[in-house]
Amino acid sequence: MYREGTNTRAKAVTKGCPQGSVLGPRLWNLLFDGVLRRLSESGRDVIAYADDLVVLVTENSRAALERTATDVVAQLIALCGEVRLTVSREKTVMMLLRGHLSADRPPIVDVEGVRVRAVREFKYLGVTLSAGMGLDTHVETVSAKAINCMAKVTRLKERHWKKLASAQRTVLLKVNRAYRTAPTVAMPVLAGVLPIRYEAWWRWAAYRIKRRVPVCVPGIVELTAEQVEDRSVRRYAIVKDALMTAWQRDWEAASTGRLTYEFLPDVRDRMSKKFIRPDFEVTQFLVGHGEFLAKLHSLGLRDQDKCSCGEPETARHVLVDCARYNDLREQFRLRGLTLRDMVGRPGTMDDLRSFARAALKRLVAWHASGVGGAVQQAG
Protein backbone atom coordinates (compact mmCIF):
# COMPACT_ATOMS: atom_id res chain seq x y z
CA MET A 1 0.00 0.00 0.00
CA TYR A 2 1.31 3.45 -0.87
CA ARG A 3 0.04 7.02 -1.10
CA GLU A 4 0.01 9.34 -4.13
CA GLY A 5 -0.98 12.82 -3.04
CA THR A 6 -4.34 12.42 -1.34
CA ASN A 7 -4.98 9.03 -2.90
CA THR A 8 -4.10 5.68 -1.34
CA ARG A 9 -3.31 2.81 -3.62
CA ALA A 10 -2.94 -0.89 -2.84
CA LYS A 11 -1.08 -3.44 -4.93
CA ALA A 12 -0.63 -7.13 -4.26
CA VAL A 13 2.97 -8.36 -3.93
CA THR A 14 3.49 -11.37 -6.21
CA LYS A 15 7.24 -11.82 -5.97
CA GLY A 16 10.16 -10.96 -3.77
CA CYS A 17 10.07 -11.00 0.02
CA PRO A 18 6.64 -9.93 1.31
CA GLN A 19 7.66 -9.92 4.97
CA GLY A 20 10.17 -7.11 4.59
CA SER A 21 11.46 -4.34 2.41
CA VAL A 22 14.69 -2.80 1.23
CA LEU A 23 14.23 0.13 3.60
CA GLY A 24 13.03 -2.04 6.49
CA PRO A 25 16.38 -2.50 8.29
CA ARG A 26 17.30 1.18 7.95
CA LEU A 27 13.89 2.33 9.16
CA TRP A 28 14.17 -0.05 12.11
CA ASN A 29 17.56 1.40 13.04
CA LEU A 30 16.17 4.92 12.93
CA LEU A 31 13.25 3.92 15.13
CA PHE A 32 15.10 1.81 17.69
CA ASP A 33 18.12 4.10 17.88
CA GLY A 34 16.08 6.58 19.91
CA VAL A 35 15.23 3.89 22.45
CA LEU A 36 18.87 2.86 22.77
CA ARG A 37 20.08 6.45 23.11
CA ARG A 38 17.65 7.24 25.91
CA LEU A 39 18.58 4.04 27.75
CA SER A 40 22.27 4.89 27.43
CA GLU A 41 21.72 8.51 28.51
CA SER A 42 20.05 7.26 31.68
CA GLY A 43 23.16 5.24 32.53
CA ARG A 44 22.03 1.85 31.27
CA ASP A 45 24.61 -0.50 29.73
CA VAL A 46 22.91 -1.86 26.62
CA ILE A 47 23.92 -4.09 23.71
CA ALA A 48 21.65 -4.53 20.70
CA TYR A 49 21.72 -6.40 17.43
CA ALA A 50 18.63 -5.84 15.29
CA ASP A 51 15.74 -6.48 17.71
CA ASP A 52 17.77 -8.57 20.18
CA LEU A 53 18.58 -6.41 23.21
CA VAL A 54 20.74 -7.14 26.25
CA VAL A 55 20.80 -4.83 29.28
CA LEU A 56 23.61 -5.32 31.80
CA VAL A 57 22.76 -4.44 35.39
CA THR A 58 25.46 -4.20 38.07
CA GLU A 59 24.75 -3.72 41.80
CA ASN A 60 26.32 -4.61 45.15
CA SER A 61 23.38 -6.41 46.78
CA ARG A 62 20.41 -8.59 45.92
CA ALA A 63 17.91 -5.89 46.89
CA ALA A 64 19.64 -3.23 44.80
CA LEU A 65 19.93 -5.61 41.88
CA GLU A 66 16.23 -6.47 42.00
CA ARG A 67 15.25 -2.80 42.26
CA THR A 68 17.49 -1.60 39.43
CA ALA A 69 16.60 -4.49 37.12
CA THR A 70 12.89 -3.86 37.67
CA ASP A 71 13.35 -0.16 36.88
CA VAL A 72 15.35 -0.96 33.73
CA VAL A 73 12.76 -3.35 32.33
CA ALA A 74 9.93 -0.94 33.15
CA GLN A 75 11.81 1.90 31.45
CA LEU A 76 12.45 -0.25 28.38
CA ILE A 77 8.78 -1.20 28.07
CA ALA A 78 7.76 2.44 28.41
CA LEU A 79 10.23 3.70 25.81
CA CYS A 80 9.20 0.99 23.35
CA GLY A 81 5.56 1.87 23.94
CA GLU A 82 6.23 5.45 22.89
CA VAL A 83 7.17 4.25 19.40
CA ARG A 84 4.47 1.57 19.32
CA LEU A 85 6.82 -1.34 19.98
CA THR A 86 6.05 -4.15 22.38
CA VAL A 87 8.43 -6.25 24.47
CA SER A 88 7.89 -10.00 24.38
CA ARG A 89 7.48 -11.05 27.99
CA GLU A 90 7.82 -14.73 27.01
CA LYS A 91 11.24 -14.13 25.45
CA THR A 92 12.49 -11.77 28.15
CA VAL A 93 14.81 -13.59 30.56
CA MET A 94 17.50 -12.75 33.09
CA MET A 95 20.66 -14.54 34.17
CA LEU A 96 23.37 -13.96 36.76
CA LEU A 97 26.67 -13.42 34.99
CA ARG A 98 29.00 -12.71 37.92
CA GLY A 99 29.02 -12.29 41.67
CA HIS A 100 28.28 -14.41 44.73
CA LEU A 101 24.51 -14.73 44.44
CA SER A 102 23.29 -18.29 44.03
CA ALA A 103 21.71 -19.24 40.72
CA ASP A 104 19.39 -21.47 42.76
CA ARG A 105 17.87 -18.35 44.30
CA PRO A 106 17.89 -15.73 41.55
CA PRO A 107 16.79 -12.10 42.02
CA ILE A 108 13.07 -11.40 41.66
CA VAL A 109 12.17 -8.92 38.94
CA ASP A 110 8.48 -8.11 38.46
CA VAL A 111 7.21 -5.96 35.61
CA GLU A 112 3.54 -5.08 35.36
CA GLY A 113 2.71 -8.03 37.58
CA VAL A 114 4.73 -10.49 35.51
CA ARG A 115 7.91 -12.04 36.92
CA VAL A 116 10.88 -12.09 34.54
CA ARG A 117 11.97 -15.68 34.07
CA ALA A 118 15.43 -16.57 35.43
CA VAL A 119 17.54 -18.97 33.39
CA ARG A 120 20.88 -20.71 33.86
CA GLU A 121 21.91 -20.23 30.25
CA PHE A 122 20.75 -18.41 27.15
CA LYS A 123 21.85 -18.05 23.57
CA TYR A 124 22.72 -14.63 22.20
CA LEU A 125 24.03 -14.10 18.68
CA GLY A 126 24.94 -17.75 18.35
CA VAL A 127 26.85 -18.01 21.64
CA THR A 128 25.35 -19.93 24.55
CA LEU A 129 26.28 -18.20 27.81
CA SER A 130 25.95 -20.01 31.13
CA ALA A 131 25.50 -18.54 34.61
CA GLY A 132 28.82 -17.24 35.89
CA MET A 133 29.94 -16.38 32.34
CA GLY A 134 30.59 -20.03 31.62
CA LEU A 135 31.04 -21.29 28.08
CA ASP A 136 30.94 -25.02 28.81
CA THR A 137 27.52 -25.54 27.24
CA HIS A 138 28.53 -23.57 24.16
CA VAL A 139 31.74 -25.57 23.75
CA GLU A 140 29.89 -28.87 24.19
CA THR A 141 27.23 -27.86 21.67
CA VAL A 142 29.73 -26.65 19.09
CA SER A 143 31.91 -29.74 19.63
CA ALA A 144 28.95 -32.07 19.15
CA LYS A 145 28.00 -30.29 15.94
CA ALA A 146 31.58 -30.36 14.70
CA ILE A 147 31.96 -34.07 15.46
CA ASN A 148 28.67 -34.80 13.72
CA CYS A 149 29.68 -32.73 10.70
CA MET A 150 33.08 -34.39 10.50
CA ALA A 151 31.45 -37.81 10.72
CA LYS A 152 29.22 -36.87 7.80
CA VAL A 153 32.15 -35.44 5.85
CA THR A 154 34.14 -38.59 6.53
CA ARG A 155 31.35 -40.77 5.16
CA LEU A 156 30.95 -38.57 2.11
CA LYS A 157 34.67 -38.44 1.40
CA GLU A 158 35.25 -42.17 1.75
CA ARG A 159 34.24 -42.47 -1.89
CA HIS A 160 36.81 -39.86 -2.83
CA TRP A 161 39.86 -40.96 -0.82
CA LYS A 162 40.86 -43.37 -3.60
CA LYS A 163 40.76 -40.53 -6.11
CA LEU A 164 42.91 -38.39 -3.83
CA ALA A 165 45.29 -41.30 -3.26
CA SER A 166 45.50 -41.78 -7.02
CA ALA A 167 46.44 -38.12 -7.46
CA GLN A 168 49.11 -38.44 -4.77
CA ARG A 169 50.35 -41.66 -6.35
CA THR A 170 50.94 -39.90 -9.68
CA VAL A 171 53.19 -37.38 -7.97
CA LEU A 172 55.00 -39.91 -5.79
CA LEU A 173 55.78 -42.19 -8.74
CA LYS A 174 57.84 -39.31 -10.11
CA VAL A 175 59.34 -38.43 -6.73
CA ASN A 176 60.40 -42.05 -6.16
CA ARG A 177 61.38 -42.59 -9.81
CA ALA A 178 59.25 -45.74 -9.69
CA TYR A 179 57.61 -47.74 -12.45
CA ARG A 180 53.89 -47.16 -12.79
CA THR A 181 53.20 -50.75 -11.64
CA ALA A 182 54.65 -49.98 -8.19
CA PRO A 183 52.14 -50.54 -5.35
CA THR A 184 50.32 -47.42 -4.22
CA VAL A 185 50.59 -48.26 -0.52
CA ALA A 186 54.41 -48.26 -0.69
CA MET A 187 54.81 -44.89 -2.39
CA PRO A 188 54.28 -42.62 0.67
CA VAL A 189 56.52 -44.86 2.80
CA LEU A 190 59.29 -44.80 0.23
CA ALA A 191 59.01 -41.03 -0.23
CA GLY A 192 58.76 -40.37 3.50
CA VAL A 193 55.47 -38.46 3.37
CA LEU A 194 52.07 -39.04 4.95
CA PRO A 195 49.43 -40.74 2.81
CA ILE A 196 46.99 -38.14 1.52
CA ARG A 197 44.25 -39.27 3.92
CA TYR A 198 46.40 -38.68 6.99
CA GLU A 199 47.94 -35.51 5.59
CA ALA A 200 44.42 -34.10 5.20
CA TRP A 201 43.49 -35.09 8.75
CA TRP A 202 46.73 -33.60 10.09
CA ARG A 203 46.17 -30.22 8.45
CA TRP A 204 42.53 -30.14 9.56
CA ALA A 205 43.48 -30.98 13.16
CA ALA A 206 46.37 -28.47 13.26
CA TYR A 207 44.02 -25.75 12.02
CA ARG A 208 41.55 -26.49 14.82
CA ILE A 209 44.24 -26.71 17.51
CA LYS A 210 45.60 -23.32 16.47
CA ARG A 211 42.12 -21.87 17.01
CA ARG A 212 41.60 -23.85 20.24
CA VAL A 213 38.72 -25.88 18.88
CA PRO A 214 38.25 -29.53 19.96
CA VAL A 215 39.56 -32.18 17.59
CA CYS A 216 38.00 -35.54 16.80
CA VAL A 217 39.28 -37.79 14.03
CA PRO A 218 36.91 -40.77 14.33
CA GLY A 219 38.70 -43.93 15.40
CA ILE A 220 42.08 -42.20 15.53
CA VAL A 221 42.34 -39.31 18.01
CA GLU A 222 40.26 -36.95 20.10
CA LEU A 223 41.28 -33.77 21.93
CA THR A 224 38.75 -32.30 24.33
CA ALA A 225 38.17 -28.58 24.82
CA GLU A 226 40.26 -28.71 28.01
CA GLN A 227 43.19 -30.40 26.26
CA VAL A 228 43.11 -27.95 23.37
CA GLU A 229 43.12 -25.00 25.78
CA ASP A 230 45.91 -26.46 27.97
CA ARG A 231 49.23 -25.33 26.53
CA SER A 232 51.07 -27.83 28.72
CA VAL A 233 49.49 -30.63 26.68
CA ARG A 234 51.56 -31.63 23.66
CA ARG A 235 48.53 -31.16 21.42
CA TYR A 236 50.18 -31.27 18.02
CA ALA A 237 52.40 -34.18 19.05
CA ILE A 238 49.40 -36.17 20.30
CA VAL A 239 47.59 -35.79 16.99
CA LYS A 240 50.68 -36.51 14.87
CA ASP A 241 51.51 -39.61 16.93
CA ALA A 242 47.94 -40.92 16.61
CA LEU A 243 48.00 -40.42 12.84
CA MET A 244 51.35 -42.17 12.59
CA THR A 245 49.96 -45.08 14.62
CA ALA A 246 47.00 -45.36 12.26
CA TRP A 247 49.32 -45.26 9.25
CA GLN A 248 51.50 -47.96 10.84
CA ARG A 249 48.45 -50.21 11.25
CA ASP A 250 47.55 -49.71 7.60
CA TRP A 251 51.12 -50.44 6.52
CA GLU A 252 51.30 -53.65 8.54
CA ALA A 253 47.93 -54.87 7.26
CA ALA A 254 48.54 -54.07 3.59
CA SER A 255 48.58 -56.97 1.14
CA THR A 256 50.92 -55.23 -1.33
CA GLY A 257 54.26 -53.49 -0.97
CA ARG A 258 55.63 -56.33 1.18
CA LEU A 259 59.18 -56.07 -0.14
CA THR A 260 59.25 -52.38 0.75
CA TYR A 261 57.88 -53.36 4.16
CA GLU A 262 60.92 -55.60 4.76
CA PHE A 263 63.19 -52.62 4.12
CA LEU A 264 61.03 -50.08 5.95
CA PRO A 265 58.64 -51.79 8.41
CA ASP A 266 58.33 -48.79 10.74
CA VAL A 267 56.86 -45.61 9.25
CA ARG A 268 58.06 -43.45 12.15
CA ASP A 269 61.58 -44.74 11.62
CA ARG A 270 61.29 -44.06 7.89
CA MET A 271 60.17 -40.47 8.48
CA SER A 272 63.28 -39.87 10.58
CA LYS A 273 65.65 -41.17 7.88
CA LYS A 274 66.06 -38.12 5.69
CA PHE A 275 69.08 -39.71 4.00
CA ILE A 276 66.84 -42.19 2.14
CA ARG A 277 66.47 -40.51 -1.24
CA PRO A 278 64.93 -42.85 -3.82
CA ASP A 279 66.29 -42.85 -7.35
CA PHE A 280 65.57 -44.90 -10.47
CA GLU A 281 67.94 -47.78 -9.65
CA VAL A 282 67.58 -48.16 -5.89
CA THR A 283 63.79 -47.83 -6.07
CA GLN A 284 63.63 -50.95 -8.24
CA PHE A 285 65.19 -52.95 -5.40
CA LEU A 286 63.18 -51.26 -2.65
CA VAL A 287 59.88 -51.89 -4.44
CA GLY A 288 60.65 -55.01 -6.49
CA HIS A 289 59.27 -53.57 -9.73
CA GLY A 290 61.90 -53.14 -12.40
CA GLU A 291 64.19 -55.03 -14.76
CA PHE A 292 63.77 -58.37 -12.97
CA LEU A 293 62.58 -61.29 -15.10
CA ALA A 294 60.13 -62.56 -12.48
CA LYS A 295 58.32 -59.23 -12.41
CA LEU A 296 58.49 -58.74 -16.19
CA HIS A 297 57.12 -62.25 -16.69
CA SER A 298 54.21 -61.59 -14.30
CA LEU A 299 53.35 -58.55 -16.41
CA GLY A 300 53.44 -60.58 -19.62
CA LEU A 301 56.59 -58.84 -20.87
CA ARG A 302 58.91 -61.88 -20.81
CA ASP A 303 58.41 -65.52 -21.72
CA GLN A 304 59.92 -66.91 -18.53
CA ASP A 305 60.95 -65.70 -15.09
CA LYS A 306 64.12 -67.65 -14.23
CA CYS A 307 67.60 -66.38 -13.59
CA SER A 308 70.40 -68.42 -15.21
CA CYS A 309 70.96 -70.03 -11.80
CA GLY A 310 67.50 -71.57 -12.02
CA GLU A 311 65.75 -69.43 -9.39
CA PRO A 312 63.07 -66.79 -10.10
CA GLU A 313 64.87 -63.56 -10.84
CA THR A 314 63.36 -61.18 -8.27
CA ALA A 315 64.80 -58.06 -6.68
CA ARG A 316 65.50 -60.02 -3.49
CA HIS A 317 67.21 -62.81 -5.43
CA VAL A 318 69.57 -60.37 -7.15
CA LEU A 319 70.25 -58.41 -3.98
CA VAL A 320 70.70 -61.26 -1.49
CA ASP A 321 70.90 -64.74 -3.02
CA CYS A 322 72.27 -64.98 -6.55
CA ALA A 323 75.93 -66.03 -6.65
CA ARG A 324 76.46 -64.06 -9.86
CA TYR A 325 76.39 -60.87 -7.77
CA ASN A 326 78.62 -62.02 -4.90
CA ASP A 327 81.43 -59.78 -6.06
CA LEU A 328 79.19 -56.71 -5.95
CA ARG A 329 77.90 -57.60 -2.49
CA GLU A 330 81.48 -57.92 -1.28
CA GLN A 331 82.55 -54.72 -3.02
CA PHE A 332 79.73 -52.66 -1.52
CA ARG A 333 79.78 -54.37 1.90
CA LEU A 334 76.22 -55.71 1.78
CA ARG A 335 76.91 -59.38 2.49
CA GLY A 336 75.23 -60.52 5.69
CA LEU A 337 73.08 -57.41 6.11
CA THR A 338 69.32 -57.68 6.47
CA LEU A 339 67.17 -55.63 4.13
CA ARG A 340 66.35 -53.27 6.99
CA ASP A 341 70.05 -52.87 7.84
CA MET A 342 70.79 -51.86 4.25
CA VAL A 343 68.70 -48.69 4.65
CA GLY A 344 69.48 -48.20 8.35
CA ARG A 345 72.38 -45.74 8.07
CA PRO A 346 73.59 -43.20 5.53
CA GLY A 347 76.68 -45.31 4.76
CA THR A 348 74.81 -48.55 4.08
CA MET A 349 72.21 -46.63 2.08
CA ASP A 350 74.95 -45.27 -0.15
CA ASP A 351 76.36 -48.80 -0.52
CA LEU A 352 72.93 -50.10 -1.53
CA ARG A 353 72.60 -47.31 -4.07
CA SER A 354 75.96 -48.18 -5.60
CA PHE A 355 75.11 -51.89 -5.67
CA ALA A 356 71.78 -51.17 -7.37
CA ARG A 357 73.42 -49.21 -10.17
CA ALA A 358 76.12 -51.77 -10.79
CA ALA A 359 73.80 -54.79 -10.50
CA LEU A 360 71.15 -53.36 -12.84
CA LYS A 361 73.77 -52.41 -15.40
CA ARG A 362 75.06 -55.99 -15.36
CA LEU A 363 71.57 -57.52 -15.33
CA VAL A 364 70.32 -55.47 -18.31
CA ALA A 365 73.45 -56.31 -20.27
CA TRP A 366 72.97 -60.02 -19.59
CA HIS A 367 69.33 -59.83 -20.65
CA ALA A 368 70.31 -58.10 -23.87
CA SER A 369 72.96 -60.72 -24.64
CA GLY A 370 70.63 -63.65 -23.92
CA VAL A 371 72.25 -64.56 -20.62
CA GLY A 372 69.73 -65.28 -17.89
CA GLY A 373 66.35 -66.41 -19.17
CA ALA A 374 67.70 -67.62 -22.54
CA VAL A 375 70.45 -69.66 -20.86
CA GLN A 376 67.95 -71.21 -18.47
CA GLN A 377 65.67 -72.19 -21.34
CA ALA A 378 68.57 -73.81 -23.16
CA GLY A 379 69.55 -75.73 -20.02
Reading the helices and strands in chain order gives: EEHEEHEEEEEEHHHEEHHHHHHHHHHH
Radius of gyration: 37 Å
Q: Span between N and C termini?
A: 105 Å
C-alpha geometry: elongated
Percent in strands: 5-15%
Helix content: 40-55%
Number of strands: 12
| Uncertain stretches | 373-379
Give the strand order of the largest sheet, numbering strands 1, 2, ... along the chain.
Answer: 1-2
* Coarse structural class: mainly alpha
Q: How many structural domains in the coordinates? A: 3
Give the number of helices: 16
Largest sheet, in brief, is:
2 strands, antiparallel
Work out the oligomeric state of the chains in this entry. Answer: single chain
What average pLDDT do the residues reach?
A: 84
What does this structure look like?
The structure is a single chain. This protein has helices at residues 24-41, 62-82, 136-176, 186-191, 196-210, 225-229, 235-253, 258-263, 267-272, 280-287, 293-298, 315-321, 326-331, 339-342, 346-369, 373-378; strands at 2-4, 7-9, 45-49, 52-56, 93-94, 110-111, 114-115, 117-118, 121-124, 127-130, 215-217, 221-223. By secondary structure, the protein is mostly helical. Strands 1-2 form a two-stranded antiparallel ribbon. It has a two-stranded antiparallel ribbon with strand order 3-4. Strand 3 (45-49) and strand 4 form a beta hairpin. The termini are far apart. Residues 373-379 have low confidence and may be disordered.
